[in-house]
């Protein structure tokens, strides 16, 4: 009953819920594809593909890969300077472009100017962050950060000084707001969520994502509570297994209700809003594509015949509950020169956990189907059927 009371109390305090509307944008991968440049899909931990992969890229003006990233607005400093940031549960630092950076990528974005902020304080501490194959250099500073009305004082954040290889040139966002655990933060910088908790700014120490399907608006990240208008089932919880990424255990993986046995000893997965696709460990990719009846394309991805009517439903068992992923979730229908092209939104990865176990990545393909809640107070992740 105590638990029930707590749950009801948090729903009743709806004014304590801070919502940040998120915009959908075509990812860099898709924007480049529209220019005829295809990035290899072979290194998928990556959200931020660097230009150096372009050297080996294949040019095909017809093909059209769609994937999406989600960003929203925050302000930094006094008076406020506004930035579009990617809300990323797969990293832990906040950084934005700054006037200290004059690369093409920085000049294409809004840059933070510390001299214009009366609440800014500088440091001499530099950092380097690598996102898969993308990377940036910067310097840390402190300032007030306003996330949809949650005002965090003395938040440490990165000001970019160099983005080699123009990694972020194509990005629609000016920075990244990482929501992972502090253990993976570059420079041991205290993440935004940790300061929100320490400064007592949240009703409940959790945040939750709704990522809309089929090009609809309404995506959001909510802080301090869950937004019950965005899901329509119970929330099913699973404990965090490593406080690094939002890492959880997968207890089983089925294809058309047939248990594959791949996760009979337990698989590890990270829940990552900054990864577009569903990502499976390299060792299972071949079997999985065979089960789907997918063909490899020339760009390192996979596609299916759009007339196929017997595509399987994939299903993850997470803490005893099955989370099905129907073909409509993992097949992206593209227009390729006037014809439909059915891309499989699944990639493989060699990414491993800190103790070297292969990792699945439950990216946006999964998170569009399931509203996701990231509970720092109890170190658990919740999923519910998204509206
Ligand atoms: C930063 O702001 C200061 C004070 O307004 C201004 O003098 C300076 O030109 C700005 N720097 C850049 C690179 O915009
Ligand atoms: C924080 O941002 C909200 C809008 O998201 C605004 O209404 C509020 O005035 C801001 N607070 C401060 C202290 O800047």
UniProtKB/TrEMBL annotation:
The active site is at residues 88, 272. GO terms for biological process: proteolysis. Residues 70-384 form the Peptidase A1 domain. It comes from Scleropages formosus. GO terms for molecular function: aspartic-type endopeptidase activity. Residues 1-16 form the signal peptide. This is Progastricsin. Gene3D superfamilies: 6.10.140.60, Acid Proteases.
